[in-house]
Design brief:
- The protein has a 4-stranded mixed β-sheet with strand order 1-4-3-2, covered by helices on one side.
- The chain has helices at about 20-30, 85-95, and strands at about 15, 35-40, 45-50, 60-65, 75-80, 100, 105-110.
- Strand 2 and strand 3 (about 45-50) form a beta hairpin.
- Helices cover about 20% and strands about 25% of the residues.
Length: about 110
């Protein structure tokens, strides 16, 4: 039996907070342009937000209405990026006091999730 060989990531799906918080984080802080929004035909209380940043071509966020209390969330998310892009994200983070952290010069991480 052969081992499965992946050629890359097609898209990433995340359950986010609310629409505006997600746009503020992905576009405003990380600089990933908001491309479009599409209704979720299976659940009308949800929509899909699409963000673009080169490779992979589209990042796909699955949005739900904001919830109160504990629930699913991302504890830590790390993205590999060119050092110049990481420096820009850190500057934006300092201006916004967002809580971005990084252990290495070519990764951007968030402990708070978005």
């Amino acid at each position: 039996m052969r081992e499965f060989q992946s050629q890359g990531v097609h898209h990433i799906t995340l359950v986010g907070a609310d629409r505006q918080s997600s746009i503020d984080f992905w576009e405003g802080l990380l600089g990933m342009p908001f491309v479009f929004e599409q209704p979720n035909l299976d659940n009308t209380s949800e929509s899909h937000l699409y963000f673009d940043r080169g490779w992979p071509p589209h990042h796909h966020l699955h949005q739900r209405r904001a919830r109160t209390g504990p629930g699913p969330h991302a504890h830590r998310l790390r993205l590999r990026a060119p050092s110049r892009a990481v420096r820009l994200a850190r500057r934006r983070s300092r201006r916004r006091s967002s809580g971005l952290t990084s252990a290495r010069s070519n990764t951007v991480g968030s402990r708070t999730g978005a």
